[in-house]
Amino acid sequence: MTDYLTWAILVITLLVFFIYFLERRRLQKLPPGPLGLPILGVLPRFDFRDIETYRRLRRQYGDIYSLNLGLQKVVVVCGYEMLREVFVVNGDATSDRPQNYLMKELSENAERRRLQKLPPGPLGLPILGVLPRFDFRDIETYRRLRRQYGDIYSLNLGLQKVVVVCGYEMLREVFVVNGDATSDRPQNYLMKELSENAGVVATSGPVWRELRNFCLRTLRDLGYNKRFIDKCVQEEIPYVFDEIEHCIGQPFDIKPLIQMSISNIVCSIVYGKRYDYQDPEFRKLIANMSTVFEKGSSTGAINFFPFLRFLPGDLFGVKKLKECYQVEVEFNKQRIKDHKTFFNPRDPPRDYIDSILFAQTKTEILNKTQVYHHISEMFAAGTDTTATALRWALLYLIHYPEVQDKMASEIMQVTDGARLPVIADKVNMPYSTAVVTEVLRMGNVAPLSLPHVTSQDFTVAGYLIPKDTTLIPCLSSFTHDADMFPNPHKFDPGRYINSEGFLRGREKVLAFSLGKRSCLGESLAIMELFLFLTSLVQRYKFSMKDSSNPPSLKEIFGLTYSPIPYQLVASKRD
């Protein structure tokens, strides 16, 4: 089956390339010339050293004719009048020298050529690279290649060279020490189609820096701190309790409730309001956002072969992905329109959108496209990662009831059951804090951080990584590294607690990447996860639907790593 798929993809690729080049030739109206084979052109039957070949082709096609030499189009110019027309009359356009491989190799010094050797990696097929046998959604593939090639290795994905970075020290070297060269975002097909290369996630350079600084500054100025998050969660959690009360003793899927409650924290920040859990527009928004995150990775091949989008149907799910994402964008367009109705620049901003409307009067960066996609990314990223981590947390707690009981005991000791936990309680809840840290490590919501691209050449581990190389940070190579975390596949919050019962110190789990592109909402996500989880465990005991058939700890690998849907049972604590 694998061989059949490989050859099928290869044949389709060759066919599409051939049609593409014929169409390009027709549109560009290049001079005539002999037809060649797909990909190879006339190379197999063209003798560069036989001048008679050029004369024969001149007699056949005239004083100017075209040749397909591999994937490169070449135009041969003959005869005095044509030579003068091309290289004298049009000399301004025709005097540059081609930067082909041989010219480049001859012009660069030996040291640079030695360094420019990219990290090792598996061999692939011509054109396709390793794509036919590479599963983007199997994190074990990346770990296996790390064991084989080391902490930095190369992959040929189609015609694109990609470098995968693993291990804490190498990740830090590439994305922190060399952060100035490795913090841009690749402008691939999907990024362009979904976000129009707008928003903090998709932009690079000065625009990205200004957007990021605006976001951080605005959140600070609006007072979105520990006290604010305490207040938001304490206002939202009673609605969560009300929903759970209707399900006491009965198996239920807690995913929609978690997504909507976490989303309402983001809504309070961005829109200045929360939404009722039964609001049909809100539920539609959450459902579409969930689809984007769960199905996003299945579209990866389009980034390497964008022409595949012309195949009939929606084989790679791109159309569905765009439809779901557009629901978010349209929702946010309406929220911005609603805000403009009551916005007064002389009044203090009520929320994040008000702050954007005010800033639009002072900067050109925040145009309509940037704003629509920035608000959409804040809503989606602020909801999905935290909600997914909380779902992992509850799944692990029903698999490890002794951890849940120990956590509940600590919470009761600190709060006496008379109030909800607050952020200030973390210092007195080392075990609960350790549970959150272990959830972030084991759940590993983002095992592969979003890709980066190099903005300039840089050296690492004896290699010169060229400009415009795509980099993939493999965070799971650290979170499940046995040298850093003994018995790494075991859920064990105790690994962060010392013999005296205190936290050992800030542990490196890299749940939110590192360097200049680290997650803007990291501190917010950790606070939310701590508050929601401790509040739920304080009030309820969660257990499996059927202990003889426990829910799977396997994952769905989309844009994030999420648990397979599961049901649990909630009962009130004494």
UniProtKB/TrEMBL annotation:
Gene Ontology CC annotation, any one: cytoplasm
Q: Which Pfam families match?
A: p450 (PF00067)
Top-level taxon: Eukaryota
Q: Which UniProt keywords apply?
A: Heme, Iron, Membrane, Metal-binding, Monooxygenase, Oxidoreductase, Transmembrane, Transmembrane helix
Binding locations of heme: 519
SUPFAM superfamilies hit by this protein: Cytochrome P450
Q: Which cofactor does it need?
A: heme
The record, for PANTHER family, names: CYTOCHROME P450 306A1, CYTOCHROME P450 508A4-RELATED
UniProt-recorded name of the protein: Uncharacterized protein
Q: Which organism is it from?
A: Magallana gigas
Q: What is the lineage of its organism?
A: Eukaryota, Metazoa, Spiralia, Lophotrochozoa, Mollusca
